[in-house]
């Protein structure tokens, strides 16, 4: 059996490896790669310094940027049949619920509800999980200036919010992979196994992949 997808989205908490996996799959299948443009958000460094003050402008900047990308994804690429992205549009609301106060969230939702109805819908979502310890280590290793302020407590909050969201997610077939003890970047056998499960195994509802590290 071979699974054919037009649009695969890879999701997970900061530092889990979603962009790395998106790039690796893109290279294998000559797909179109769409990456979240988080570095273009001028409010993000300020948000990590002062979460309460800069949450709303940070969120609205992300919402506008992601929606523009979603509109571009709706157009077909004649040379690359499959699109791989390192986020889904609905993830934006995970952060909004976590960071905005009630009045800000109400205003945000009025805009989000309009946009989400016309955003691109993935044929498959891959949700990468990892322990907070692993996330902290990954963030430490890549050493981005603005991520140095990310606290363990914020990652714990975010992980809980992501788990709740995806355990109730039903808009697309979903694969859940725990990456705490594996390394699909350095170990090609781990990547091969993930590839096999995505493209050559039946996917019904929510599927969890368990990879036993060597």
UniProtKB/TrEMBL annotation:
Keywords: Kinase, Transferase. The keyword Transferase applies. Gene3D superfamilies: P-loop containing nucleotide triphosphate hydrolases (3.40.50.300). CDD domains: dNK. The keyword Kinase applies. This is Deoxynucleoside kinase. It comes from Fodinibius salsisoli. GO terms for molecular function: kinase activity. Residues 8-200 form the Deoxynucleoside kinase domain.
């Amino acid at each position: 059996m071979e699974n054919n997808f037009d649009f695969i989205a890879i999701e997970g908490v900061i530092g889990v490896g979603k962009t790395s996996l998106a790039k690796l799959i893109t290279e294998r299948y000559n797909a179109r790669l769409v990456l979240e443009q988080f570095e273009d958000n001028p409010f993000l460094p300020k948000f990590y310094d002062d979460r309460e003050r800069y949450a709303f402008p940070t969120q609205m900047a992300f919402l506008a940027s992601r929606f523009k990308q979603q509109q571009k994804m709706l157009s077909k690429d004649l040379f690359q049949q499959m699109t791989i992205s390192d986020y889904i549009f609905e993830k934006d609301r995970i952060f909004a619920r976590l960071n905005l106060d009630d009045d800000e969230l109400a205003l945000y939702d009025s805009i989000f509800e309009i946009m989400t109805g016309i955003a691109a819908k993935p044929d498959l979502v891959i949700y990468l999980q990892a322990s907070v310890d692993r996330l902290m280590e990954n963030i430490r290793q890549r050493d981005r200036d603005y991520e140095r302020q990310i606290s363990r407590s914020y990652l714990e909050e975010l992980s809980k919010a992501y788990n709740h969201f995806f355990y109730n997610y039903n808009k697309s077939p979903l694969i859940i992979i725990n990456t705490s003890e594996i390394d699909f970047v350095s170990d090609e056998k781990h990547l091969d196994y993930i590839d096999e499960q995505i493209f050559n195994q039946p996917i019904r509802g929510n599927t969890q992949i368990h990879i036993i590290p060597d």
